[in-house]
Amino acid sequence: MADPRFFKVAGPFSLEQLAEISGSEIGDKSRETRMFSDILPLDSASQNDVSFIDNRRYIEAFRNTNAGAVVVAPELVDQAPESAALLITDNPYTGYAKLTQAFYPQNAFTDGKINAHAIVDPSAKTGKNVSIDAGVVIEAEVEIGDNTQIGANTVIGVGVIIGNNCLIAANVTLIHCIIGSDTIIHTGVRIGQDGFGFAPGMPRHTKVLQLGRVLIGNEVEIGANTTIDRGAGPDTIVGDGTKIDNLVQIGHNVQIGEGCFIVAQTGLSGSTVVGNFVALGGQVGIAGHLTIGDGAKVAAKSGVSIDVAPGVTVAGIPAQNARDHWKGLAMLRRLVKEKRGK
Amino acid sequence: MADPRFFKVAGPFSLEQLAEISGSEIGDKSRETRMFSDILPLDSASQNDVSFIDNRRYIEAFRNTNAGAVVVAPELVDQAPESAALLITDNPYTGYAKLTQAFYPQNAFTDGKINAHAIVDPSAKTGKNVSIDAGVVIEAEVEIGDNTQIGANTVIGVGVIIGNNCLIAANVTLIHCIIGSDTIIHTGVRIGQDGFGFAPGMPRHTKVLQLGRVLIGNEVEIGANTTIDRGAGPDTIVGDGTKIDNLVQIGHNVQIGEGCFIVAQTGLSGSTVVGNFVALGGQVGIAGHLTIGDGAKVAAKSGVSIDVAPGVTVAGIPAQNARDHWKGLAMLRRLVKEKRGK
Amino acid sequence: MADPRFFKVAGPFSLEQLAEISGSEIGDKSRETRMFSDILPLDSASQNDVSFIDNRRYIEAFRNTNAGAVVVAPELVDQAPESAALLITDNPYTGYAKLTQAFYPQNAFTDGKINAHAIVDPSAKTGKNVSIDAGVVIEAEVEIGDNTQIGANTVIGVGVIIGNNCLIAANVTLIHCIIGSDTIIHTGVRIGQDGFGFAPGMPRHTKVLQLGRVLIGNEVEIGANTTIDRGAGPDTIVGDGTKIDNLVQIGHNVQIGEGCFIVAQTGLSGSTVVGNFVALGGQVGIAGHLTIGDGAKVAAKSGVSIDVAPGVTVAGIPAQNARDHWKGLAMLRRLVKEKRGK
């Protein structure tokens, strides 16, 4: 069980409920009224727990599990122990993910109230069941949708709009931005500050005021201490369903499509356009004013300095077609070996 | 127009005022009393707006613009439409930058007061017209100059000095540091914490207390969530007019000169000395105890492990003269092609 | 002397006390009652100050110092000036480090009290002599050990446990974590937020709730704006005595051993296991599910994609045995030169 200091378990849920939540078919309908109180790995689950298998590596643990129910793909059903009820789905990991959300709802520790130690401008509008923790500062004309939670000591700047069912964690700063619904923003994130824009000069560079905004879509997740600058005139945009890890930098005017994954410590320079379902590995750097096509992949630590076509995987500094990059590295290793052989 | 939720436009300004602000000559003096209410791109500006062109790529938009005035370089004057008054300058981008500051002054949302929910130690001294937002904590003996703004939930530690006309954003921490005037520090910046100093040992390393400070000059800008450690004994120094992007790390005892650009996610290790007007690309790493000469440039993602002479451009990991680095990469690609040809 | 705006010097200490603190032998016992009021570099120390030498580069400064006492290794004793009492130890840098802690104790500016502007849940337990600054938010069921200090506007989430003698700086967020004793957490650190876990899917990825914790050991130090995600089910662990620099990212389920050094802007992907006394240079990236052996070293900016054996040094992207990596680079430079020769 998850540590009860930090997690409150919901439920119990019947097998029928678990099937509905996880999008599964029940293998044996006679068990559908059985109740389950937690979700645990195959090797620690008991008859009261549900578990899951999404990888053949764990097949032995599956065969020997004591779990009362298991989320499983059709092709592994014949490996199941007799003691386990089956929740059969083509996407057992997605099924598991949905069950974690049901057993451990994110609002377990909030109360839908505005804490007496929060400082909320009278002109701000808050929806129903909004939780605002102590020390939060909400400035003028802010709008916050229903069921949204705001963590302690977070600052929401003048005019910001936040949708419904969002989770804004502690110590966050949101300014000059509009946030969709069902979006999660983790601790220490900074959204909407000035982009890095200067007219270079001697003896002094001149600041170019940044007059755009940041628009964040629905179902986006943004990791701790990530920074997203507002546009210089156009807006900086993050599309629906895109997931961004910790310590990522997104420059002014960047446009990111839907469903992308951006792993930690990656940086996108100004005005670059990223398509849908793009995957950027960790510590990637992308130069400014580029286009990264739909479904493209960039290997971790690569430096992208030219456009990437849809569906292509690139690697290296500067990044090129990943296969060519690996061949170059292999060539170099072979040359070193040959020299040693002489 | 910039979104009025987030930006308050000043003005209107006469053509004569725009010329003075932007350092331009008016092309046709008969128009100098005309008034302008906003600054917009060439393709969306109307007769009441000023716009600018700083790049021949936009020459078509310039020829067809409805803008009432355009900031323009002398060599493009003959391409101007009849309808536009001209503001002629050798540096149109700098002229534009100054106009953005005039139309959208940074203090538009502040009131020159100390918020009732700020916590200011009685021994702190604040100048005239200082704005301190809710939740700010100002500790003992702090000194803050005239017209400086401090954003919500920022912490200014014991003894810190901040000059005039500074903008310190929300959720910042300043400790053990002295900040000049006209400097901008964005959200989440950390200045003055301990450097990374240990006497290595078994079974435990021993912490070396860091007894220096951080000295930040005038007209510096520091990006969101950037960290600048205080010196171990000497001070860590950032010179006048240097502009630092987001998520940059500056180690203890580093000295940076004037007018440098340091792009996002770059890191400078301890005791390195950087000259004036140096440009470091994004995600650059510089080892400790090095000297980077005046006007040197380091390509994005490079790793610098030896000194860089003034004016030189370096690239690669480890960084070398950029031309040699590109030749090495080209050589490798040629070898891969030749092998494929066999 | 360190700037008294920021540092309060303790002492004075007798030579005998300095010997005990620094683990040294006194060279001339007749001087052991002499008193010392500060610790300074060789070239600025006076007869009332103690200094140190740990590197032969400074031998001239040592010969000419006016310091009243010097921490020194046995092999340099014969170079000492007559005026200096000697504190002889095999580890003069460790001796110096301990003296900095004695002269400049970290609690110099705290009072062992809970500030009236801190917001502490009634169910939280705090030990003796705990200092909690203004604007701190301490949520339900938190436990804080004796002599621990918490900086302004920091947030300690539900259920978090912090040991004795810890220094938690300003603007930090600690959630879902248990922190040992004698640990230092710098400004802006984020510990315990959700790891980056999703079940990929079209049109939407599904969030996998992260049900583990972060366990931080004793005598750990964590640099400014570093992020450590909680485990997905297992815990994320940082072992005793490990020192982590600024802006480091540590993914879910990562286990780090004792006494490691992790330099700034390095990232460790999920489920990687790092042994004891491992050194990771700056801006290193380590892929997920790897094992880095005890005493291994990774050169700055390397990208580690396979396991590293104990004691081995690796470099490059992807990282390989450092010697092979340097040979490959040398080979490429030679090829470029040869081509130029033709």
Q: Termini of chain A, distance in Å?
A: 61 Å
Structural class of chain A: alpha/beta
Q: What is the C-level CATH assignment of the largest domain in chain A?
A: Mainly Beta
* Biggest β-sheet description of chain A: 11 strands, mixed
This entry's quaternary arrangement is: homotrimer
User: Which range does the strand content of chain A fall in?
Assistant: 25-35%
Give the domain tally of chain A. Answer: 2
Percent range for helical residues of chain A?
10-25%
On the 0-100 scale, what is the average pLDDT of chain A?
96
Most extensive interface? A-B, 62 and 60 residues
CATH homologous superfamily grouping of the largest domain in chain A: Hexapeptide repeat proteins
Furnish the topology, listing elements before pairings.
Three copies of one chain form a homotrimer.
Chain A: E1 13-14, H1 15-22, E2 25-26, E3 35-36, E4 38-39, E5 49-52, H2 59-63, E6 69-72, E7 85-88, H3 92-103, E8 119-120, E9 125-126, E10 131-132, E11 137-138, E12 143-144, E13 149-150, E14 155-156, E15 161-162, E16 167-168, E17 173-174, E18 177-179, E19 184-185, E20 190-191, E21 198-199, E22 206-207, E23 214-216, E24 221-222, E25 227-228, E26 236-238, E27 243-244, E28 249-250, E29 255-256, E30 261-262, E31 267-268, E32 273-274, E33 279-280, E34 285-286, E35 291-292, E36 297-298, E37 303-304, E38 313-315, E39 320-321, H4 322-341
Parallel strand pairs in A: 4-5, 5-6, 6-7, 8-11, 9-12, 10-13, 11-14, 12-15, 13-16, 14-17, 15-18, 16-19, 17-20, 18-23, 19-24, 20-25, 23-26, 24-27, 25-28, 26-29, 27-30, 28-31, 29-32, 30-33, 31-34, 32-35, 33-36, 34-37, 36-38
Antiparallel strand pairs in A: 1-3, 2-7, 21-22, 38-39
